[in-house]
UniProtKB/TrEMBL annotation:
PANTHER family: RIBONUCLEASE, RIBONUCLEASE E_G-LIKE PROTEIN, CHLOROPLASTIC. InterPro entries: RNase_E/G. This is Uncharacterized protein. The keyword Signal does not apply. GO terms for biological process: rRNA processing. GO terms for cellular component: cytoplasm.
Amino acid sequence: VRPSVTFMISEPCSCCHGTGRVEALETLFSKIEHEISRLL
């Protein structure tokens, strides 16, 4: 059984001690790189 895509690209929230999820750093960096390349 494969984990859901949301689970794979997110990590537990440190503010709510894991009851929610936030974007994983790798996902965030990828989005930033994409936006920078789009602007150039």
